[in-house]
Amino acid sequence: MSETDTRKVAFGLVLLAVSSVLIFGPGTLGVAIPLAAIAAGTLGLAAGALLVGTSSDGRPV
Fold it and tell me: Structurally, how many domains does the chain consist of?
């Protein structure tokens, strides 16, 4: 059985949550956000998904 790196999972989930709030939060409030913030949120989502996907020793999904 493969071992999961819990630090990678935790950091990836935090990164996913913060990036999601950064992208979708201001839109629900009707506030305009700069394009750079949306780009940073998108990169954060990609990095968080990569961290969670590669957190175990097995083949990444």
Answer: 1
